[in-house]
């Protein structure tokens, strides 16, 4: 006879509902109880029947994940976190890429809503109005954006920018540029707002340049405008844009950091592989993905308690070789 959830409950000394929570949403079960359930399931060789569970719960056992651009090295880390955490709770992940297109993003949310139990929406580009119009169709957790009471995981952009500006100020920089990212990006707006506040408080001139695509080509396109601005340092919207700046500065014979300091945001793997290595503000990419799934599972288990959940993860300055003392002239 196949092992059932009731068998596991009997051996673990808990109710079948507790077994279900321990195996599907372990964050909602005390560690000791969860460990007891997992030991009982392992001893009995219990394998959840997804089809049967779906008939009972009305759930598919699937999670949707929508990202704006899979070619951006930031997002694979988030995907890895989502997949690993979902797998731990016996959920499959349907992955979709919007190619930075808000219209495609809205269409994907509607399409996936019919096939999954909930959606993790990463760095959405839709307007607030469009977000509100599509999100009511299925439970959604957003990553890297906040809109009203929609559950969200974000990064502390304000403190990340504070660390970045403090670093440049300590090196003597008094006039810096910000190469802005996509106009519809919430993170871009947050970073620009934090830069204005922080530089103003520090008595530093801030020159805002762009909006540019959050890609290597965006940095190349912005590079000559940065040089024309007469700044001694530049903070890019993300690492890819910063790498584009570094590449074009090298082509122009502009030495980094001797003539100009360059800083990124994200800490993608490539930031350590270039020369000079890129000073950047690190975001815990895999942790963002895992936290998003945790929140979505909580939302599925207890919609009322998790309906307006918020969590902010820390950012961390990573000082490398692309920043140095401001040139004396």
Automatic annotation (TrEMBL):
Q: Which SMART domains match?
A: HTH_LACI
Keyword entries, A-Z:
DNA-binding, Transcription, Transcription regulation
The cross-references to InterPro entries, in alphabetical order and at most eight, read: HTH_LacI (IPR000843), LacI/GalR-like_sensor (IPR046335), Lambda_DNA-bd_dom_sf (IPR010982), Peripla_BP_I (IPR028082)
Asked whether the UniProt record includes Transcription among its keywords, one would answer yes
The coiled-coil segments of this chain are none
> Locate the HTH lacI-type domain: which residues?
3-57
Database matches in SUPFAM superfamilies: lambda repressor-like DNA-binding domains, Periplasmic binding protein-like I
* Superkingdom as given in the UniProt entry: Bacteria
* Gene Ontology MF annotations: DNA-binding transcription factor activity; transcription cis-regulatory region binding
What name has this protein been given in UniProt? LacI family transcriptional regulator
- Source organism of this protein record: Dactylosporangium siamense
